[in-house]
């Protein structure tokens, strides 16, 4: 199987999602041959545990690299995660591969509904709740009558179910087993907000929250953050990155999470975790507004973050966090599609 996620020195959401799916697939099929096409400039490319074909920039813009990888690797399945040009889809299909397309917002979903892609898509998964996107247009619905296999299927979040025992062991290993905590993560660590790395802004939030709330803070720096993490203190623990099951476990156990409005927002909402959220990329602002309208998070106001944190934790203790219908974990749906004949 060949995974082709969007990849860059800034973000890594698509790569992490593809890696999560690849690892889960490997657990079910130990003999599965898995490869990735990744941006040569992305910091995580050198650490990918699978065969990697490099691309100059994102694979979508390097059709030569994609063509070479497809012809050399000869995959049975190709997963385009928010990536791919029509001619790349067509080539994958011509070489006999099943084509899976993953989109995460209106613009990317629309790409999967174009006539130059529809004939070559076997599965189209949308990793957002249905309330985040408008209904399909009449034209789109008519096209899908001709190409029903390419109908977009909303699968909400994609994550490993938390292994609480493993997470508790991680907390013990970091001398945090008896401390309630706040988890903060600005995603990959490569995004900027007003000239600062988002990670640095989130570190400032950790300093405020740990002092005002007397709660320990765990800050996930992100692998794309180019500098060394600050030294751990009695109030704050810094980690560069976490395996998904550990990260999800910490999400589940945290008193509060402060996160970006990427995949982690969907995951935390699916697990009904109290959260404060900040958009750090251009595609995240609308998503944050929609989740806030559904009562699933609260947008960060930097000068009021302590007041907001207190409010969110109090409300959670009184009534919890819930969506109707509850958000689901779509990992099993993707795996089923990848492994089916």
TrEMBL record:
MF terms in GO = transferase activity
Q: Which UniProt keywords apply?
A: Transferase
Q: Does the keyword Transferase apply?
A: yes
Q: What is this protein called?
A: Spore coat polysaccharide biosynthesis protein SpsG, predicted glycosyltransferase
Q: Which species does this protein come from? A: Thalassotalea agarivorans (Thalassomonas agarivorans)
